[in-house]
Amino acid sequence: MILEFNINNPPPVLTEIEDALKQVIKDRALLRRKNIRFLIYVLLVVAAYATFMLTVTIPILEDPAALPDFVATVAYCTPYLTFFIFIVSNNLHTKVIERPRKILDTAIPAFKAASKKRIAEIRDCGRRYLEVANYQQRVSSIGRPMMHGETEMLFQWVEKRMQKEAGLSNGFSI
């Protein structure tokens, strides 16, 4: 589970952030191994498919009377499996590997210390919003730097608050 920052919850201590970062890096390495394993499986399926095409389908297409009707039917349908194999393997790869990898790739920078410029921008927001200033104070009382993910969370919170104050919902006035 990825550690999430929330303005209403107490900020996590540095050890929790380090543990979450280690877990994200470990999960990223696991996805890399899954990606390699998935590639091997797809190559094995394609190799079996190509072997079947070369040893069964092509000879049947040259002499259709050589084998029973069932095998001939399978041989005639085999070329259409190319599209099916591509679609299924691509969807599985996206679902099992790519989507989680993208989530983890965005999570890794969130656990790094924020730049001084971002912290200064948040400090400016803290002058206007008491909740932001309180969160900053809680982070500094723990004795750790503000994380990039926390600054992003605070900016999103300020943006939602500004929309609420302006009477906007999802960018449109009601």
UniProtKB/TrEMBL annotation:
<keyword id="KW-0812">Transmembrane</keyword>
<feature type="transmembrane region" description="Helical">
    <location>
        <begin position="73"/>
        <end position="92"/>
    </location>
</feature>
<feature type="transmembrane region" description="Helical">
    <location>
        <begin position="38"/>
        <end position="61"/>
    </location>
</feature>
<protein>
    <submittedName>
        <fullName>Uncharacterized protein</fullName>
    </submittedName>
</protein>
<keyword id="KW-1133">Transmembrane helix</keyword>
<keyword id="KW-0472">Membrane</keyword>
